Amino acid sequence: MTARNFFSRPLRALSTAVLALAAGAVIAHGDVTPQAVDTSSLKQVGKEWLTKNPYLGNKEAIRIGDSAFNQNCARCHGLGAVSGGIAPDLRYLPAGQEGDEIFLQRIRHGATRDGRVYMPPFEGILSQEAMWTIRAWLETVRED
Asked: Strand, coil or helix: what is 42?
């Protein structure tokens, strides 16, 4: 067996494995199991959907929202909400109630275009409190 034949099989196998993993990563994009968010240390807001963030500036809510974002949103929207191009950069959401309305609409109902899911709906998966903690944290990384 020549040296060329000796190395070609393992290299071919390695190349095949790398390509299979890369293809799997592309197919798996967005296929994430939502993680629970513990909001028990916060005042609960009830069943009626609010239009304004009740946790704006709340340090505990911001702490929880930071973790909740990293566990449930960062895969697509990027660490620190700095998008790498897969999904919108959430640092540029409008401030205050205008941004609250946009955020809540999208996180509750998701986004679908031409039958393709660009963002899954989180209503029924994350609580309203969990969603508002994420929004409270997003306000702390907001840019103009």
From this structure: coil
